[in-house]
Amino acid sequence: MILDSLNSFVMKTSLIQKYNVPGPRYTSYPTVPYWNETNFLYQNWIDTLKKSFSESNTKEGISLYIHLPFCESMCTFCGCNKRITKNHEVESPYIDALLKEWSIYCKILGEKPIIKEIHLGGGTPTFFSTKNLEDLINGIFHYADKAKEYEFSFEGHPNNTTHAHLKKLYDLGFRRVSFGVQDYSEKVQKAIHREQPFHNVAKVTFWAREIGYTSIGHDIIFGLPFQGEDDIIDTIEKTKSLQPDRLAFYSYAHVPWIKGNGQRGFKDDDIPKDDEKRKLYEIGKELLYEYDYQEIGMDHFALKSDGLYNAFNNRELHRNFMGYSASKTQLMIGLGVSSISDSWYSFAQNVKNLEDYYQILEWDKLPIFKGHLLTDEDLTIRKHILNLMCQFETSWQESDDYFEEIPAVLAQLEEMEKDGLLIIKENRIQVTEKGKPYVRNICMAFDLRLKRKTPETALFSMTV
Question: Which H/E stretch holds residue 376?
Fold first, then answer.
């Protein structure tokens, strides 16, 4: 038994060394660095927005992602677009700007949107007062209606989410909340500048459950500076005691060339590497299995009672710029500084600078600064990558799903098949249990834009 365990670990270590390369997380295809910005016009976004809206609004509704960028302190693991301030006078002007942007969208769309999904992300959404959050949501529905089956969610910081926040957002229709835990080790928390005791997480989790939230999520990161096996075990065991409905258990993306000084509060040598890092994941995953959590897509877990598990089981799981979702919509509009929108036929991103965002809205224009118009090839590849990320399999049995580079893709995947990461069949491939940690690598074989233009500089985090 000991020999079998040792052989298994050696095999996993060799696979990690082989496949641990920089690669996208595939919240979109094409990925943002491969957008063709030169061929994208503001009018492209307007045209595809209207097309997608006409095709999908009455059938399934639309999704809104609303970016709330303010934080009172910097967390050094974070790659989000944020503005650090303790001045809460910034709240009202930003809410006014969001509602101005939404009103411009609604004028373009011409008829009332039916909203199926709202997600408040950040930054720190609970930086905002309950009054301002209420004004935001009520302002959104001044121009829109709710879908019959809607899902509203938000990200809460355990240190500043109050009972009033949870109650007010519940009254406004929110039923899902995700709390950023990361790790319970004091040493790790200090390194990433996210010091929050277990008591704070327990308090907001119990409040949310008491109020009536039907899905409570915790975000946990492996591979953080100074993080060891005992830290992962302690964090997972503490998480089990609170029994959140779903978990994001994902890899720390160390990309200081993108995030600047915010990720240089510790040395590179302080970060677990390669097989050491992957072992943290394997330990955590085994504990989650033991505690009845089911693996959903990449780096996500849920109890069987949670909607994310049901969506995965029913092959309805979706992935977009908000991550995994149990409710798919063709059209997703992003509001706020740096937000990305997706009409299915094109992507559009808002300006990243807050002052530019305010200025462009003053001109009664959408604050878009770049985008990408998807080609027919992009749409086909996107479908395969979504299938792999959401279902761990894809097929080209239908003629519309076939593309001429399929033989080259399969040739590239042969080595992975020999390593037991996937099974290649006549018109489909299926990721094995052993291959799930390497699903990003498998998707890269389909990523024609990445293969045609290998990055000359660092663009992505490591896949393991």
Answer: helix 376-391
Helices (H), strands (E): how many in the chain?
A: 16, 19
Q: Which residues share a beta bridge with 348?
A: 341, 371
Q: Distance (Å, rounded) from C-alpha 143 to C-alpha 372?
A: 28
**137: part of which helix (H) or strand (E)?**
helix 130-140
Instruction: Spell out where 56-195 has E strands.
Output: 62-68, 70-71, 83-84, 114-122, 145-156, 174-182
Average pLDDT over residues 289-306: 94
Contact 66, 120 (CB under 8 A): yes
DSSP annotation of 57: H
Q: In which residue are the tokens 């075990």 written?
A: 233
Q: Are 345 and 407 in contact (CB under 8 A)?
A: no
For 397-446, write each residue's pLDDT tens digit. 998 999 999 999 999 999 999 999 999 998 999 999 999 989 999 999 99
pLDDT tens sequence across 202-214: 999 999 999 999 9
* pLDDT tens digits, one per residue of 98-107: 999 999 999 9
Q: Enter the tokens of residue 359.
A: 């200025």
Q: Coil, helix or strand for 409? A: helix
CA distance 61 to 59: 6
